[in-house]
Structure formats: structure tokens, C-alpha cells
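Batch manifest, entry 17 of 40.
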Amino acid sequence: MKRTFLNCAVVLVGILVGFAAGRYLPFGKYTQHDPVLFFSAFSEPGWKMTEESYNHNAKDAKQLLLTTLSIGESDIQQVMPEQMKKALVMRSALTKARLAVLEREAGNYDQAKDYLAKAEADLKAIGWKDYSDAAILKAIKRPHDPSN
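Output type: C-alpha cells
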């Protein structure tokens, strides 16, 4: 019994050490001096998952969008190159636009209008040429939407 427990403990410690080393070596070592690589490695999977939940009209899409928006807007406050900030502002604006669509579909027209106005303001601030409602909604259109 003791021997089995000890073997399991050693295996678990080995797994944890391997996980920690595997996470540190590829990302910690190579991304600590490159903020763009760090940004891409850690934020892109979250954005992609959120976009996919919206595209497939998942029941938890709104919550994922709100969480992603909260994290994205807190990241904007970090010290980083200006181009990265613009990318985060653009992602946040498109997330707000997606939230506007979900709110409109739920019948919350005032909240939808508010989200879309915030998205327009963000896109205008980063230099988008056409930040009209139609252009923004076209940018976030669901791929399987029959009105494509």
C-alpha cells in the first residue's frame, strides 16, 4: 500500500515538474523579451474561442464575450508597444459589437445600441476609415449566417 502510494506520488510530481518546465521553457524563456510574442501566445487562444462561441451562437457566448472584454480592456492599460494597444482596442471594439448583436437578439435594444456606440468610438480612435454600424456588423458577421 505504501509503495503504491509512493509510486503515484512520484508520478504526479513528475507530471507537475514536466508541465511547469514545458510551460516555462517555450513561453517564459522566449517571450520574456518579446511582448508581441507573449501577447500572441497567451491571448490569441482566448480570443479565438470567444469568436467561435459567438459564431456558433453558443449559449455561453455572452458570458465568454464579457469575460474576454474585461480581460482585454485591463490588458490595454498595460505598458506595451502602441501597435499592440491598437490591436487590443480593435479586438475589444469587435467584442463590443458582438455583444451588441447578442443583446439585440435578446431584445435589449438600448444595451445593444450602447455597445455598438462604444465599438464605433474605439474603432474611430484607432483610425478605422469606415466605422459605421453596417461596416462593423459586416466585420463580425457569423460565417454560417444565411444573410451572407
